[in-house]
Amino acid sequence: MLLENHYHNSLVNGIPTGLRLLDTQMSGIVVLSQVQTEWPVLVHRDPIETSGSRCPLDACSSSAQKMVFNLNTLLACSFFCLFPSTNRNIGNLRAINFDMLFVSLHQKPDEKQRNKIKCIVHYFERIFSEMPTGNVSFERKVTALEYKSSRLSYPNARFWRKSTVPLCRFEVRTSGFIEDQPYEAIEVDFANKLLGGGALKRGCVQEEIRFMINPELISGILFLPAMKENEAIEMVGAERFANYTGYSSSFVFSGNHVDQRDIDSMGRRKTRIIAIDALRLPGKRQYELELILREINKAFCGFLDQRKDDEYQKLFLDEGISGSVTSEVVIHRITLQNSTNTCMMPVEDAIMSSTVAKSSDHEWTSSLMKFKSESQENQNEIGIATGNWGCGAFGGDPEIKTMIQWLAASQALRPFVLCYTFGLESLDNLDEVVNVIASRKYTVGDLWNMFVKYTSKRVKRKTVDGFFQWLLST
């Protein structure tokens, strides 16, 4: 079969990268090129495969002698509704054809839907006038729910409580957009557990807009089933083709965008997008420890450089022995005794400027510095660019979600968080809160413990204050 040949012949450093189904709990990566010059002939056949390593694309003519599966091909098939749609819901896969987007225009004229289609049409116009030549990767990242020696296990409350990792630099942006951030940062997709959300239906908020201005992301819907609580999806290299104004019902395509991002060694644009799905309408339960752990571990899974799992475990788990979800995990300590503002500088700078009292702490600190250096050798200080993840339509508390992301990014050893508040009133004093936390020299464990103390009071109805107000008055 052509798909199987494509899969087995597509290797990078011995790792399979060919198009196939990346099923739930199956970590792996698919790398696709942006265009191809030889287009396949497609015919409808049997319903899609939803198990094993096969890709859910069973529409390839046996007459095709050469086949390379590319983003423009997959998007063209989606646009013309050529993919079989039977049983996709059984495999936890979202519909990939554009039929529902077209139907929504027929049922009820809607300007935002028209403008979404304009973005897609503009994409095809661009690639036929000037063929792009890069690659885009889609990776399912998984944190093991049970202990496995080769993978970091799902952190428990003790893991977070005991952490003495310094908080990373935190910058607040009251204007601008994540996709326009000026640094080389991982940009958070406020995702639905089914990748793409309502991009191919009526949806038009953060995730859906990103999939319209970077249409190559839509291809991931084809072969990436729903995310579980210990999973995230990282997409690297998707080119931006469109500009826009507005949001939701006011969304408008506003013309061509020339993507100036640099290219990495794999031929991918240095646009890194991480899809992490927050709890949907959690209400007052979002203050319960179980759900807080779910959210922080979801963000941690997305933010961690999982190619460094082994080294990370050796650093953070006592004696290099990994712990499971239920085991007692002991984190080695860093002793920071000077007055340096560790919250407002990269982790390695905070460590370099600290006085280490114990030889064991000094040994661990040296290991951390070495790990950070090696980890970022090819990543150039890659931080996190995010905003009101899990808020808005998902009903999350913005103050809680902001702190969760800061904790997760710091524990993942990211050098900074760039937070866009989009003018949200409840985050007006975020800068003040960050400065107060910095002045108190909190570590991840310190902030976590304050955080849990607050949320337990909310659960017990001993306070109605927001976290920021409560923290500032403590």
> What structural category do the secondary elements indicate?
alpha/beta
* Count of DSSP H/I helices: 15
Give helix % range. Answer: 25-40%
β-strand amount: 5-15%
Question: Mean of residue pLDDT?
Answer: 81
How many β-strands, per DSSP? 12
Radius of gyration: 23 Å
- Unreliable spans: 37-67, 318-361
- In spatial order, strands of the major sheet run 3-4-7-10-6-11-12-5
Characterize the largest beta sheet: strand count, sense, and whether it forms a barrel.
Answer: 8 strands, mixed
Based on Cα principal axes, name the global outline.
Answer: globular
Topology order in helix (H) and strand (E) letters: HEEEHHHEHEEHHEEEEHHHHEHEHHH
Ends: how far apart?
Answer: 65 Å
Active site: 189, 207-208
Keywords: Glycosidase, Hydrolase
GO molecular function: poly(ADP-ribose) glycohydrolase activity
Domain PARG catalytic Macro: 159-428
Write structural notes for this entry.
The protein is of the alpha/beta class. The chain has 15 helices and twelve strands. The protein has helices spanning 2-9, 71-79, 99-107, 111-129, 157-162, 206-213, 220-223, 289-303, 309-316, 347-352, 359-376, 398-411, 430-439, 444-459, 467-473, and strands at residues 11-12, 15-16, 28-33, 135-142, 169-173, 185-191, 231-236, 242-245, 252-256, 272-277, 383-386, 416-420. The strands form three sheets. An eight-stranded mixed beta sheet has the order 3-4-7-10-6-11-12-5, sandwiched between helices. Strands 1-2 form a two-stranded antiparallel sheet. The chain is globular, with a radius of gyration of 23 Å.
